[in-house]
UniProtKB/TrEMBL annotation:
This is Small ribosomal subunit biogenesis GTPase RsgA. GO terms for biological process: ribosomal small subunit biogenesis. Its cofactor is Zn(2+). GO terms for molecular function: GTP binding; GTPase activity; metal ion binding; rRNA binding. One of several proteins that assist in the late maturation steps of the functional core of the 30S ribosomal subunit. Helps release RbfA from mature subunits. May play a role in the assembly of ribosomal proteins into the subunit. Circularly permuted GTPase that catalyzes slow GTP hydrolysis, GTPase activity is stimulated by the 30S ribosomal subunit. The gene is rsgA. Its EC number is 3.6.1.-. Transmembrane segments: none annotated. It is an enzyme of class 3 (hydrolase). Monomer. Associates with 30S ribosomal subunit, binds 16S rRNA. PROSITE patterns: ENGC_GTPASE (PS50936), G_CP (PS51721). GTP binds at residues 121-124, 174-182. It comes from Pelomonas aquatica.
Length: 301
């Protein structure tokens, strides 16, 4: 008999250093730490844990994951969350979003097998048409797109996003100022209370904006939003340079090339380059592909 059979099964809803908040099947939450020095659990993980007291426990094992969303640069790997159903990339009319960061997030999700959508916020502001134009290639790719004004039209925004979010585990990604906190507070009734309670349990109140946080939006705990801190860079060093194009649907659609190992930069008979020249792949998307490819080709291990 496995030594894990008698252990509780729990969900990691937040982590800070070597301490985690783990929720059991009844909704009870425990402050847990991993046995031993290694700490590899992330928010969204299912873990086997032993109760050490009324509100504390020890993580004995992490259950196998169905996916993991993460970024990797030259120095470190940063895991966002595990076992996700979907990714919502939140961008805004203001501040102007980085298309490179948007591309990178979508590539990371595609390579992890996580479906994604984009929500454009602050569509009540001037400049909405310009933002729509920048997002046109993503709409053309068939990516799910939403338009919301989270502050100006709360009920309309809830009605727009609610059906897509229902009964799913959705990771919300976006730069500072986009409206992630507004979205969380709109859909999670006691969001600030949850943050406060967990921070008090972890004694990490100063770190509430730098930690991935799991929220249930309903009493039945069927719909979850996972919020994460903002970041400046999104490394993709986990991607093989030769496979990069496979994780960009618009490039993949046109990769009917003369050479099977075409990198879509300089080879003759390249279907991707022909599609760019014909306007079937956006010039900006192709430029970003080239920038990321160059980064990946330079990486050393």
């Amino acid at each position: 008999m496995s030594r894990f059979n008698a252990l509780d099964l729990g969900l990691v809803v937040r982590g800070h250093g070597r301490h985690y908040i783990v929720e059991d099947s009844d909704g009870r939450r425990f402050v847990c730490h991993p046995r031993g020095k290694k700490s590899d659990a992330v928010v969204g993980d299912q873990v086997r844990f032993a109760e050490a007291s009324a509100d504390e426990g020890v993580i004995e094992a992490v259950e196998p994951r169905r996916n993991l969303l993460f970024r990797q640069d030259e120095w470190k790997t940063k895991s966002f969350a595990a076992n996700l159903d979907q990714l919502l990339v939140l961008v805004a009319v203001e501040p102007v979003f980085s298309e490179s960061q948007l591309c990178r997030a979508l590539i990371a999700a595609e390579s992890a097998g996580i479906r994604a959508a984009i929500a454009l916020n602050k569509t009540d502001l001037p400049g909405t048409d310009a933002a729509r134009e920048r997002l046109a290639p993503y709409r053309a790719m068939g990516l799910k797109m939403f338009e919301v004004a989270l502050k100006a039209d709360r009920e309309g925004s809830r009605a727009t996003l609610g059906p897509w979010l229902a009964e799913q585990r959705t990771f919300v990604l976006g730069p500072s100022g986009t409206g992630k906190s507004t979205l969380i507070n709109l859909l999670v009734q006691d969001a600030q209370a949850q943050v406060g309670e967990i921070s008090q349990a972890l004694n990490s109140g100063r770190h509430t904006t730098t930690t991935t946080q799991w929220y249930w939006t309903d009493d039945g705990r069927t719909t979850a939003l996972i919020d994460s801190p903002g970041f400046q860079e999104f490394g993709l060093r986990q991607i093989d340079a030769a496979e990069l194009w496979r994780w960009m649907p618009d490039l993949r659609e046109h990769a009917d090339c003369r050479f099977h190992n075409c990198c879509h930069i300089h080879e003759p008979g390249c279907g991707v380059r022909a599609a760019v020249e014909a306007g079937r792949i956006s010039a900006s998307r192709y430029r970003i592909y080239g920038e990321i490819l160059e980064e990946l080709q330079r990486k050393t291990w």
